Amino acid sequence: MIGNAGTRGAAIRDFLKFHSQASDEEKDSFYQQLEELTGRISQQEPILVLGDFIARVGSNAEMWPRILGRHGIGYMNDNGQSILELCAS
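^ thats the sequence. predicted structure below, dont judge the formating
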C-alpha cells in the first residue's frame, strides 16, 4: 500500500516496498500505485521518493537526460528501468 500525498510541500510516506523475490505483478502494482500518487502532485513541486528499490539504473545518462547524472556505474536492471520510467513520467 502506498501512503499520502500532500498538496503543498508534497510528502510521500508509508508505502510498502517490495522484496527481492516479489513477482512481476507485485512490482508492477507497486509502481502503478506510486505513479498514480505522484501524478496527483503539481509538477511545480519537488518530489523525493526514497527507499530501497533493489534498483540499478546503470550509466546511460544520454538515454535519461535530466533524470540520470553522469556518475552512474554498471548496468540497468528491471527495477532500475521501472524507477527511471517513473521519474520520466
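The two ends are 21 Å apart (CA to CA).
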